[in-house]
Amino acid sequence: MRLLLLFLLFPPLIFSLNQEVLYLQRVKLGFDDPDGVFSNWNDRDKNPCNWYGVTCDSVANSVNSLDLSNSNIAGPFPFLLCRLQNLSFVSLYNNSVNSTFAGDFSECRNLEHLDLAQNLLTGTLPDTLADLPNLKYLDLTGNNFSGDIPASFGKFQKLEVLSLVENLLGGVIPAVLGNISTLKQLNLSYNSFLKGRIPPELGNLTNLEVLWLTDCNLFGEIPDSLGQLKRVKDLDIAVNSLNGPIPSSLTELTSVVQIELYNNSLTGVLPARGWSNMTALRLLDASMNELTGTIPDELCSLPLESLNLYENQFEGNLPESISNSPNLYELRLFQNRLTGDLPKDLGKNSPLKWVDVSSNQFSGEIPKSLCEKGQLEEILMIYNSFSGEIPVSLSECTSLTRVRLGYNSFSGDIPVGLWGLPQVSLLELIDNSFSGEIAKTIAGATNLSALIISKNNFSGSIPEEVGYLENLVEFSGGDNKFSGSLPASIVNLGQLGRLDLHDNGLSGDFPSGIHSWKKLNELNLADNKLSGNIPSEIGSLSVLNYLDLSGNQFSGEIPIGLQNLKLNQLNFSNNRLFGEIPPLYAKEMYRTSFLGNPGLCGDINGLCDGRSEARSLGYAWLMRSIFLLAGVVFIVGVGWFYRKYRNFKNAKRAIDKSKWTLMSFHKLGFSEYEILNALDEDNLIGSGSSGKVYKVVLSNGEAVAVKKLWGGSKLADESSDVEKGQFQNDGFEAEVDTLGKIRHKNIVKLWCCCTTRDCKLLVYEYMPNGSLGDLLHSSKSGLLDWPIRYRIALDAAEGLSYLHHDCAPPIVHRDVKSNNILLDGDFGARVADFGVAKVVDKIGKGTKSMSVIAGSCGYIAPGL
Ligand SMILES: *[C@@H]1O[C@H](CO)[C@@H](O)[C@H](O)[C@H]1NC(C)=O
Ligand SMILES: *[C@@H]1O[C@H](CO)[C@@H](O)[C@H](O)[C@H]1NC(C)=O
Ligand SMILES: *[C@@H]1O[C@H](CO)[C@@H](O)[C@H](O)[C@H]1NC(C)=O
Ligand SMILES: *[C@@H]1O[C@H](CO)[C@@H](O)[C@H](O)[C@H]1NC(C)=O
Ligand SMILES: *[C@@H]1O[C@H](CO)[C@@H](O)[C@H](O)[C@H]1NC(C)=O
Ligand SMILES: *[C@@H]1O[C@H](CO)[C@@H](O)[C@H](O)[C@H]1NC(C)=O
Ligand SMILES: *[C@@H]1O[C@H](CO)[C@@H](O)[C@H](O)[C@H]1NC(C)=O
Ligand SMILES: *[C@@H]1O[C@H](CO)[C@@H](O)[C@H](O)[C@H]1NC(C)=O
Ligand SMILES: *[C@@H]1O[C@H](CO)[C@@H](O)[C@H](O)[C@H]1NC(C)=O
Ligand SMILES: *[C@@H]1O[C@H](CO)[C@@H](O)[C@H](O)[C@H]1NC(C)=O
Ligand SMILES: *[C@@H]1O[C@H](CO)[C@@H](O)[C@H](O)[C@H]1NC(C)=O
């Protein structure tokens, strides 16, 4: 009975809710729902008011809000929703609604809030949207809408928020938007609008609180009318091409909190007066314009929080009044023409965090109160004319992270505490007149990554504590007066990329254990008084690129390991080194790298002459005459001998040991004679396209493989000498040139090579298991199980990868085949036989010769 009464009272409502269930279920069917957000939208629960995202009006008992934001649903926009008569709020924010937005909005009469931001909507904005009589909030941010903003948008009756940020909209910003008098937020940033102006009509939007037009391709002047936006709090017209002056009407924006004008082409001066009426202003950014004149005192009297005026042409002083700002945390004025002292109370009342006044013409001292509130993180003052000492207060500022005081005229000792500030990552004092020592307190600077103190008057020894700075990447202390030896601990700096201490008075030996400088790229210890040997470990600094040890007193030989490095800059000049220059560097281009070491010899013109320079001119002349005479005698003798020798050779084709020249690429434990004596047919282990291969067991028990190249004796005829040379050089020079430079565990090692006029030998490490090709096709192929084959493939690939990617210039082998992959005792593979390898100098270059087919039968190397 009571139930019946209920029915009699509310029949239409029950009916309408049932209808809404049907509509909603059809909406559900239209979406792809991988996360199952619609799982409780089902028949068991007939009351949609309990469904996920659905809210009902309790009085009308019908659906009035649908919030499916962040639900990962995909599909077209469900226009059917408009059938829900009382629906006023729809949010599908951050989903994959992927249709165009064309449909029938006429039924959405009650819709007030429509949020479709961050979806995949495409096509043009529908004209008819403006017909929604109650729409207050329209957010279409982050879709792919294109085309113009429709003129009909001027007709919105109640719209308060319009956001079309980050779409692909074209055309220009229509003036009719100035007719939406109800508008509070107009956000149109980041679209691909055509070049256009700010419509002055926007000044009619007197309810506007936010005008956000960043990166909208705007040019022309800022309209005076914007001064009428009495309620605007946030005016952002940055990153456009606006030009002309900042209108003085802007100072009439009495509610504005934030003004962003950066990265335009604004000219002229800031309004001198009127700022005091902008009592709400907290943030002003007019950086990256062409503004001139002074920074108005009235502006600085406001309780600003952030003032960015960098990259302009401001001149004059920074007004004292700025130091009264109780909330100023950011002050960036770099790259202007500001002069005079900084306000002496700067920071006294303000929780300064970031101060950047670099690249101006400021002078005077650092204000003592800069870090008074203990918030200061960055102080950047480079390229000014500041002077005086660093205030002690700054050395107690533990919040500091970046300190850049370089290129000024500061002087005096650094307050002890400054060295050890715990959070500082960059301490740059370069090019001042600082003096005194690096304090031991530097041990506390645990986050220090760059210590740049070159070009000062620092003295004393570098404290052991520097070696405790495990995050240190750069230590530049050149052009100072440091003395004593390098601290032993300095080798602990595992992150170090650059160590530059040139032009000091450092003495003593190279520290030992430098192999832990795994990341060291630049080592400059030039012009000190360092002595002792250059440690052989230097060859293990695999990323070292710049090495300057010139102007010291280093002695001993140059470590052969230097050949492992790829150096752009090498300077060992003016030391006391002696012995042989490592072959790789015994080249003309490195001549200047070794000058001024009287004991150093190499194949470079004029190097050993260094010794005679020291003696008297007369003595040199005498020596030269003797050499000349001896030379003439020698040439005549050689001519005579040669004729004799030819006869002798024809009679007996033996190898004349005295005429061998040896080129070695590693430290050898054997002599060429030992090898020559063992080249008989008993030791022959193979014979290939380019020559015979012998196995030679040396007196020290080690074995080497010797490849004797064909040619020579086969072409004994004198007249074909040129041809013969060509024939031999093809394989030989290529192989020697290439292999001599390479060091890699998967590339066969070339110990040395011996040459005479008509015979050439290459001495390799011996590979007990021979070539992969031989093994595969022999009875022993059973030895190669799959794990071994896999490893061989991997090894060979690593060798090739090294040739292609790590050699500079890259090397193309051009004859990779199983016969050219050799196996050591453990079946480790190495790439061999570089007879046709090609050094690829530059793309484009060398292509001519590459068109020649290279390689051996059965394998043809691909062109490049
Ligand atoms: C968007 O929604 C997904 C879930 O579909 C969520 O993981 C992500 O955090 C949301 N993104 C934003 C910006 O809210
Ligand atoms: C929209 O998304 C649905 C579900 O992922 C997909 O089936 C449909 O093809 C998409 N439509 C468009 C136009 O991309
Ligand atoms: C709900 O919609 C019905 C039908 O259009 C209408 O009569 C009623 O006034 C609406 N109620 C509310 C609270 O909007
Ligand atoms: C939206 O536009 C961007 C940029 O033009 C494009 O990369 C993206 O594929 C577009 N997405 C859709 C859904 O159209
Ligand atoms: C904008 O408002 C002005 C003044 O009320 C009116 O003349 C003009 O027709 C309106 N424009 C549009 C497109 O509504
Ligand atoms: C419009 O921009 C302002 C300022 O960036 C922002 O606070 C507001 O949330 C934006 N409105 C919408 C609807 O995105
Ligand atoms: C809107 O602004 C323009 C230019 O600023 C002005 O000419 C026009 O009269 C204004 N319209 C209304 C309705 O205030
Ligand atoms: C300045 O604006 C131009 C476009 O007007 C843009 O290309 C450039 O990246 C912007 N520079 C900065 C630093 O924002
Ligand atoms: C500040 O505002 C008052 C009242 O609105 C006005 O009379 C005065 O001229 C303004 N001051 C300046 C410098 O614009
Ligand atoms: C250390 O410095 C790095 C920058 O080099 C910074 O990102 C980090 O926050 C700093 N850590 C501490 C504890 O200060
Ligand atoms: C360095 O200090 C010496 C005295 O120790 C002084 O004569 C010299 O002028 C100073 N040089 C610089 C550049 O300050």
From TrEMBL:
Please indicate if the UniProt record lists Transmembrane helix as a keyword. yes
Might you name a Gene Ontology BP term for this protein?
Answer: regulation of root meristem growth
Topology of the protein relative to the lipid bilayer: Single-pass type I membrane protein
Is this entry keyworded Transport?
A: no
User: Which parts of the chain span the membrane according to its record?
Assistant: 621-642
Pfam families in the record: LRR_1, LRR_14, LRR_8, LRRNT_2, Pkinase
Using the record's annotation, list all stretches that form the Protein kinase domain: 679-864
Q: Where in the cell is it found?
A: Membrane
Q: Which SMART domains match?
A: S_TKc
The source's domain of life comes to Eukaryota
Q: Where does ATP bind?
A: K708
Which keywords label this protein?
A: ATP-binding, Disulfide bond, Glycoprotein, Kinase, Leucine-rich repeat, Membrane, Nucleotide-binding, Phosphoprotein, Repeat, Signal, Transferase, Transmembrane, Transmembrane helix, Ubl conjugation
| GO cellular-component term (any) | membrane
Q: Name one GO molecular function term.
A: ATP binding
UniProt signal peptide:
1-16
Family indicated by similarity: Belongs to the protein kinase superfamily. Ser/Thr protein kinase family.
Name of the protein: Protein kinase domain-containing protein
Species assigned in the record: Ilex paraguariensis
